């Protein structure tokens, strides 16, 4: 039995943050019903690349869900939705604040219908505050929270992270917040509104940066791949590319000098005696290390680091990642059969359990694929389903 088996989730969200949150719950066994508008569905369905007309972006982030197409702007569609709400434990939405009220699907309305419902909202800046009305985008959140000001190289413009860290971070924050509220609901019988914003979800990640700012008044600056307080802890150029080296403590530094690069004299250099010394003289240290590393290929230095027990690794591209035997052994690249796309790969489920392991049980749904199935579970008969289709209430 999977951890969330028997829990029903209504997923009203689209694009990334909300769908990712719902997918996490679906992976763990929840019955996630994704509700989409009849005219085009989730906007990510229009994002390429496409295979046989189906979006691979949508495919990657909506697995293990059932898909229902329902027109919430029609009276009949809204009534059917309310019937679904009565059967649900959790609801996830990422509309701009105020939209759910206009659609009559806000927390207060649905709490009256189902007092035990845990209602998760994901927005750019939260449901309250002076920015609540603004739309939320990952890039804007990276700018407005200081992340871009500390990402990249000092002599280059601010850079965004390589992936949508705030969309994914907000989805994960919402997932654990919703599950905590669900556990509380198990004790009290009462659900609640869980309010998560893209911008706020990442601020607690700034542990070292917050320490520097609140403790010493230092503003974090762009340092490339370097760490702010440890060295050597960055990417270094070799003869044929780059490797990342993580000597974050004195023991690893000593092993690196003696066993990897055979430069014991660096241990007596006053610039490099302590971690703080090395961080202050990271420029000098980089020159010396790259002089040595430049004499051999990356594989040579990774072998020596491995033998010495010094943390190091390659700089992979995505095609390297999907071929790495470690990730393959842990089922982090899986192939899924889709009714239109055919067989397509995706990244697997990162949580591993000693009992039943979550798997990709179904591909992302076609638009409205499970509408009849889900509404039939509510007791809607075949004749009524056809009539609802004819009137554009469902698809």
TrEMBL record:
It comes from Alicyclobacillus macrosporangiidus. GO terms for molecular function: CoA-transferase activity. It comes from the Bacteria. The keyword Transferase applies. It holds the Pfam family CoA_transf_3. This is Formyl-CoA transferase. The keyword Transferase applies. Keywords: Transferase.
């Amino acid at each position: 039995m999977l951890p969330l088996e028997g829990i029903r989730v209504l997923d009203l969200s689209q694009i990334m943050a909300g769908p990712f949150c719902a997918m996490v719950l679906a992976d763990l066994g929840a019955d996630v019903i994704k509700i989409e508008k009849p005219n085009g569905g989730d906007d990510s369905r229009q994002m390429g690349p496409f295979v046989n007309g189906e979006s691979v972006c949508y495919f990657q982030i909506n697995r293990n869900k059932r898909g229902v197409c329902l027109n919430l702007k029609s009276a009949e569609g809204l009534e059917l939705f309310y019937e679904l709400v009565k059967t649900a434990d959790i609801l996830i939405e990422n509309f701009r604040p105020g939209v759910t009220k206009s659609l009559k699907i806000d927390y207060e309305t649905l709490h009256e219908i189902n007092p035990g419902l845990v209602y998760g909202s994901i927005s750019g800046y939260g449901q309250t505050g002076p920015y609540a009305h603004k739309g939320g985008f990952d890039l804007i959140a990276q700018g407005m929270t200081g992340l871009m000001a500390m990402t990249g190289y000092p002599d280059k413009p601010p850079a965004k992270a390589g992936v949508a860290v705030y969309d994914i971070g907000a989805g994960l924050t919402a997932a654990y917040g919703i599950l905590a509220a669900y556990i509380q609901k198990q004790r009290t019988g009462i659900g609640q509104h869980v309010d998560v914003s893209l911008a706020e979800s990442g601020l607690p990640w700034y542990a070292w940066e917050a320490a520097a700012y609140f403790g010493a008044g230092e503003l974090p600056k762009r340092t490339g791949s370097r760490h702010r307080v440890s060295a050597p802890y960055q990417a270094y150029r070799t003869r044929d590319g780059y490797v990342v080296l993580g000597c974050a403590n004195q023991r690893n530094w000593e092993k690196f000098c003696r066993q990897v690069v055979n430069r014991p004299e660096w241990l007596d250099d006053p610039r490099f005696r302590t971690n703080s010394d090395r961080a202050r003289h990271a420029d000098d240290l980089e020159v010396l290390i790259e002089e040595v590393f430049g004499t051999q290929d990356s594989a040579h230095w990774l072998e020596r680091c491995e033998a010495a027990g010094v943390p190091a690794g390659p700089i992979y591209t995505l095609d390297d990642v999907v071929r790495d035997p470690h990730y393959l052994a842990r089922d982090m690249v899986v192939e899924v059969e889709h009714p239109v796309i055919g067989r397509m790969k995706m990244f697997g489920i990162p949580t591993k359990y000693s009992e039943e392991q979550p798997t990709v049980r179904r591909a992302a749904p076609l638009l409205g694929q499970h509408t009849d199935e889900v509404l039939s579970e509510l007791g809607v008969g075949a004749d009524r389903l056809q009539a609802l289709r004819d009137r554009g209430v469902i698809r």
